[in-house]
Amino acid sequence: MKKHVAVLMGGWSAEREVSLVSGRECAAALKQCGYAVSEIDVGRDIASVLAKVQPDVCFNALHGRIGEDGCMQGLLEIMGIPYTHSGVLASAIAMDKPAAKRLFAGAGITVVEGRVVERDEVLRGHPMPIPYVVKPLNEGSSVGVTIVANGGLPRFHNEGWHYGSKVLVERYIPGRELTVGVMGDRALAVTEIRPREGFYDYTAKYTDGKAEHLVPAPVPEKIYDEAKRLAVAAHQALGCRGVSRADFRYDDTEGGTGQVYILEVNTQPGMTPLSLVPEQAAHVGISFAELVDWMVEHATCDA
Asked: Which one in 18, 128, 157, 169 has a CA-CA gap of 20 to 30 Å to 79?
């Protein structure tokens, strides 16, 4: 008898709509694999809902805060329900960009120079030479990210900002965007992402035709292998389990550093039709159904 899997999706973060797509795709694949599946659009009553549903495993398809930052993981630990992806500590640190950067640097992984500043400090004047990047401290999917160049101002100067009074500012790294999925302790592949305009923001990530994914990335073999090595090193430094995805910048510009810089690790990467990890899994011969089946069978509860 196959397990009863509750697929957690939706929620109330800024990434709700993407999570719903990920959750529905995963639920459909798990049903094909023969699992009994309950699809749950997560609300603040999730503990009582899970107590009624009584799943054997939770497939955590939530994205963003609450679902991805250790909160949902903590609840599932308390309830004693095995769940996919990383545990409480790895999830919490990965979602906190400044904390994750300190951990990566301590593990010998090259990070981008940056610092945490008050939002008002950015509006009073550039906190570092342009171009630079402004990010919320704990959002995913490039929500709220702005590249400041040519005297421009961050988005929060002219519109509502819902991501806290402090921001992370980092030097802008020219070159290429690379990403590597990790499954267990195995790097799947390296993808180069080429946005058709601008940078790889929320719209480019989730709108068909807005970005080109090149798998395998057309980079030198040495760089390809290094990106894979660093992705696994970051996965292990955080204490991740299951599937994660590490994002990098590779400065191959004329006169550039030639280095690969880690940007962040996503402990619950997207599982939509446009998502990168399923695409990389397919590249190495793992179907979407096989991927989600593996994730369920490797679900864990530390408690």
From this structure: 18
